[in-house]
Prior knowledge:
Elements: H1 3-8, H2 25-47, E1 49-57, H3 64-77, E2 82-86, H4 94-97, E3 106-107, E4 114-115, E5 117-119, E6 122-126, H5 142-154, E7 161-167, H6 174-182, E8 187-192, H7 196-211, E9 215-221, E10 226-227, E11 234-235, H8 242-250, E12 254-257, H9 262-270, H10 273-279, H11 288-300
Parallel strand pairs: 1-7, 1-8, 2-6, 2-7, 8-9, 9-12
Antiparallel strand pairs: 3-4, 5-6, 10-11
Helix pairs in contact: 3-10, 5-6, 7-8
Amino acid sequence: MSDYDHNHNNPDSCDSGDCGSCGSADSCKSARAEQELKDLRLKTRLDKIKNKVLVMSGKGGVGKSMVALKLATLLAAQGKNVGLLDIDIHGPSVPTLLGLEGKPLGIDPRTESMLPIEYMGLKVLSIGFLLRNRDDAIIWRGPLKIGVIRQFIQDVEWGELDYLVIDAPPGTGDEPLTLAQLVPGAHTLVVTTPQKVATADVRKSINFCRKVDLDILGVVENMSGLTCPDCKKLIEIYPGGQAAEMCEEMKVPLLARLPINPELAQASDDGVVYKYIFDHQNPGDPFNAVLDVVLALDDEK
């Protein structure tokens, strides 16, 4: 059991005054003191970050990491100080998308804190940077995953940031719940695809956000058709209208419908997504509606 579980989830923890599980009052007191130091370090890190945006999804495979990366890239292009945290433990995509596979993380010798990789104006951290082999499977139970998520915020030298964009694990289990608890005041973007099976899971994500008091900025529908390269007509590959109907029923805004982009997919495989996104900024990009909503958070500070 991790320190976080012991102090926050265990009814027989030190806070209850029952020291049977720890062995002695002294060990309980020491554990409480250690936890208080960790909590203070976590708060100190978060206090330096103006806005925290969780990019979530009800299921995997909907392009959540791409949305997180595009948001971080466009925020950086606006001159914002941006961190990108890929905490999708079982499917970290950011190192591949940015061509950073195999890059080692640095350590600040003064504080022994992890240093995110600085890339094109972004501060990037991913669980993928800790894998010896990109094909390694991460086979962890909940407490270990909770501890790593906490470390990636608490023990990383993020510095002063305008935005921390967090690529969250899919679903509504331990990992998203841990993020909701560790990052109070975070805002969320929920990513879906047009199919009914995807929007059904998004309903669960929206209800999850409401139950844990996360502010919902809106929904992004990814893979929303394909523009024909010849006639420029939008081809609805999946049945359309599912996300719009779901958003209306759930009373959340549908911020953008993002079409499939074969060139962006190729840039993903080549590890040059940042350059592609940066070079292809244009006023007609439907993603600009998402960017505007997130930029407005900074204006409210």
